[in-house]
Design goal:
The complex is a heterodimer. Chain A has nine helices and twelve strands. By secondary structure, chain A is α+β, with helices and mostly antiparallel strands. The radius of gyration of chain A is 26 Å and the shape is flat. By secondary structure, chain B is mainly beta. Chain B has two domains: 207 residues, 3 Solenoid (Pectate Lyase C-like), CATH 2.160.20.10; 131 residues, no CATH class. Chain B is elongated and about 85 Å long. The chains are: A alpha+beta, B mainly beta. At the A-B interface, loops of A face loops of B. Chain B: InterPro entries: NosD_copper_fam (IPR026464), NosD_dom (IPR007742), Para_beta_helix_rpt-2 (IPR022441), PbH1 (IPR006626), Pectin_lyas_fold (IPR012334), Pectin_lyase_fold/virulence (IPR011050).
């Protein structure tokens, strides 16, 4: 293998160290009585999140209590990952392509084994119910989804890899790409330069497909502004705050979104994105980090924020002349409203 | 003699010669545009019956335009029909039809900008985006107009009577329907809204923002999307209005937000999802109102302080009062509650035990809206009874210590 490939393999192997400090899987439950949702994170060596509340809920339907002592895996997972890191470094040092393939197969086997293990736990939990439980629904099991979404009674259960899990997945993807590149080079099908092309496109597809929380369409005449409680009517000034958990707050005016953020009921670190309706194309949201505002008394927005969002500075500048307004970026607007 | 001369001089200045220009098929002047060009300050234009398609007209002279037998000015769906600016102008008895729509400009059937002493009365406005729109004007009267739009999408309908940055205005005896907001006030001070009927509007019957020292009396707000919104205003007085049948998931009789030092007196709230919803409301007197057959009569959020509720009648409401807070700094006394089960041994017309208007169940619903499913179930009434006997969850200080035995009658 080339020296670059070997360095990449080493870095990817070392990146697995991050999984020690990050949760690698999470289970999230949403129900009308828990609009914010309940989350349980699974780490290599512990559980965290609202485990107690989930346990409290589970006892009604007769599920066993979840605690760390029940999972022997939590004691030795740390060493397994350690072994993988070591192996990865060995592969990088030796630099044999065949060895990399073996390593790749081994990681995939490890991943599958982990999934099987999780499925078994889930099955056991969902099916072994206490026969004396207060709520009994004949024939219903409560097995959480392995990956994805499932409806259990009034709960929406989501189960996805958490940050650590994604680190693991990306490491495997990197190993795979390196192996693919080396394979193609070895066969001399294509010159060195383009050897990376296909794998990189595959990688970029993977990356951009990442789990993103999207803004929602505003239902004009039905949705209420989260801050001033008015029914949202004017498509020119709509905006939204989207949290990392996918909750969407809608607003009818820049003034309201700023008031909402200043009140601080939703922590800054939980906010995934802040978007504004494009003043000129009212079917399109613009992200707050690349939007220009015109603030002008002539705009007469619903709550007197009088700020309109534009996609690029040039358009904003020409419009600002007709509207006799000032041009601001989001930060500046936030501080003036 | 000198005195007579002075009187004659005065009179002659009063009865200064005012010309009349007739517009119609029978007269020399065929278009209103021509008439406006010919007119001098103080003249009147009599617009006779007929259909006039004249695009966009602008009027800046102090004249009266008076319609005879409802002549129609048609904007053909393209133009703002009449833009007025100046002082001492009257627009009477004209039917404005099909004003234009634009997503960027607030086109109106009749727009008045930077004007004083304008009277707009007895007109009909149909199919307008904005019907009557006043900007930056004062001492104007909007009276006896019939305004009706047709249902289009929310975005393509403007407000019926829209006032922005005005002062000393009177909006009286108008009938507005099927607009976005029936009557809209923003930055309007020292004004009166009286005897209007605002119904079937997509959003609010009356929308009131940043407007201080105003009074609205004797209006009816019926079947609007979300009732009436009064927000960010001081010293607003609301007397003898009717709020009827504003039903829906987020529909109110009145939505009060950030309001202080006002009065809500002798109003009738009939069949609204929430008769009064209060947020950030301070020092309001709510008295002598009737709350009948509403889902919630009052929803007082924790951010409301120092409001007084007295001499009101609560009958047939699912919930009399709901709140999401505990420390309640509002005063309730001398109200009639149909759910009150106390007694009056000393026969002074006032119950001898205080009434707790907040039921435990309403507290539960504040936290878990879905629990409304259990409404009127046996277990819920049981819980409420238990709670009444031994209050534990409901705010203890939230009570009417002088509940009336019989409904209040003025």
């Amino acid at each position: 293998m080339s020296i670059t490939s070997r360095i990449i393999v080493a870095i990817a192997a070392l990146s697995l160290i991050a999984t020690y400090f990050l949760p690698f899987w999470f289970i999230h439950l949403i129900a009308p009585q828990y609009p914010e949702g309940l989350t349980m994170e699974i780490w290599l060596n512990k559980l965290s999140g609202q485990v107690e509340i989930i346990n409290g809920l589970n006892h009604y339907i007769g599920m066993a209590k979840v605690n760390e002592d029940m999972f022997p895996e939590l004691n030795y997972l740390v060493y397994i990952i350690g072994a993988y890191i070591l192996l990865g470094l060995i592969v990088a040092l030796v630099g044999k392509r065949k060895l990399l393939l073996a390593y790749l197969v081994l990681t995939v086997i490890g991943g599958v084994a982990a999934m099987v293990d999780m499925y078994q736990w889930g099955y056991k939990y969902g099916h072994n119910l206490d026969p004396t439980a207060p709520i009994q629904v004949p024939g219903l099991s409560y097995q959480p989804p392995l990956v994805g979404h499932k409806k259990l009674l009034n709960f929406d259960a989501y189960s996805y890899p958490d940050t650590g899990g994604w680190v693991l997945v990306s490491a495997v993807v990197v190993f795979f790409i390196v192996w693919l590149v080396e394979q193609r080079r070895a066969r001399k099908i294509i010159p060195k330069k383009t050897a990376w092309a296909t794998p990189l496109t595959i990688l970029s597809v993977f990356l951009f497909q990442g789990c993103s929380v999207e803004p929602e369409k505003i239902a004009y005449g039905k949705d209420q502004c989260n801050e001033c409680r008015m029914t949202i009517m004017d498509p020119k000034f709509g905006s939204e705050v989207v949290t990392k958990k996918g909750k969407v707050y809608k607003f009818d005016d820049a003034h309201c979104i700023v008031q909402f953020l200043k009140a601080g009921n939703e922590k800054r670190e939980n906010i995934a994105q802040i978007v504004f309706m494009d003043y000129q194309d009212q079917g399109r949201f613009l992200n707050s980090n690349k939007v220009w505002f015109i603030k002008s008394a002539q705009l007469k927005s619903p709550m007197n924020g009088n700020a309109a969002a534009f996609a690029d500075k040039k358009t904003a500048e020409t419009q600002a002349v007709t509207l006799k307004g000032d041009i601001l970026n989001w930060e500046h607007l936030y501080n003036t409203l | 003699m000198k005195r007579l001369l002075i009187i004659w001089l005065l009179c002659s200045s009063f009865f200064a010669y005012a010309g009349i220009i007739h517009v119609g098929t029978a007269s020399g002047v065929r278009t209103l545009k021509q008439a406006i060009q010919l007119a001098k300050d103080g003249d009147s234009i009599y617009l006779h019956k007929g259909l006039y398609k004249e695009g966009h007209l602008v009027l800046t002279k102090s004249i009266s335009i008076i319609g005879i037998d409802q002549p129609v000015l048609d904007g053909e769906g393209k133009y703002e029909i009449l833009t007025v600016s100046g002082h001492d102008i009257t627009i009477r008895g004209i039917h404005f039809s099909n004003a234009g729509y634009s997503s960027l400009y607030d086109y109106a059937a009749l727009k008045v900008i930077d004007a004083q002493h304008v009277i707009v009365e007895n007109n009909t406005v149909t199919n307008a985006y904005f019907a009557i729109h006043f900007d930056n004007s004062s001492y104007c009267v909007i009276r006896n107009n019939a305004i009706k739009s047709k249902y289009t999408t929310e975005q393509s309908s403007g407000n019926g009577i829209h006032l922005w940055k005005c002062d000393n205005m009177v909006v009286k005896s108008n009938h507005i329907q099927q607009h976005r907001d029936g009557i809209y006030f923003e930055f309007v001070t020292n004004s009166v809204i009286q005897n209007n009927v605002s119904e079937l509007n997509i959003r609010y019957g009356l929308h009131f923002m940043f407007s201080n020292n105003d009074v609205y009396i004797n209006n009816t707000f019926r079947d609007n999307g979300a009732g009436v919104a009064v927000m960010y205003s001081k010293k607003v007085e609301m007397y003898k209005n009717r709020y009827e049948h504003n039903w829906g998931a987020s529909a109110y009789g009145i939505l009060l937000k950030e309001i202080s030092d006002g009065y809500i007196i002798q109003n009738v709230f009939d069949e609204n999802s929430i008769a009064i919803h209060m947020e950030g409301t301070n020092r309001i007197e709510v008295s002598k109102n009737s709350f009948r057959n509403n889902g919630w009569a009052l929803r007082v959020q924790a951010s409301c302080n120092d409001n007084t509720f007295q001499w009101n009648n609560f009958t047939g409401n699912t919930f009399d009062v709901a709140t999401n807070g505990n420390s309640v700094l509002n005063h309730f006394h001398h109200n009639f509650w149909d759910k009150y089960e106390g007694y009056d041994l000393d026969k002074d017309g006032i119950g001898d035990v205080p009434y707790h208007p907040i039921s435990m169940y309403s507290m539960v619903i504040e936290h878990n809206p879905i629990a409304v499913m259990l409404l009127r179930s046996f277990i819920v009434s049981l819980l409420d009874r238990a709670e009444k006997a031994i209050p534990s969850l409901t705010p203890e200080t939230f009570l009417d210590d002088k509940p009336l035995m019989k409904p209040y009658r003025p």
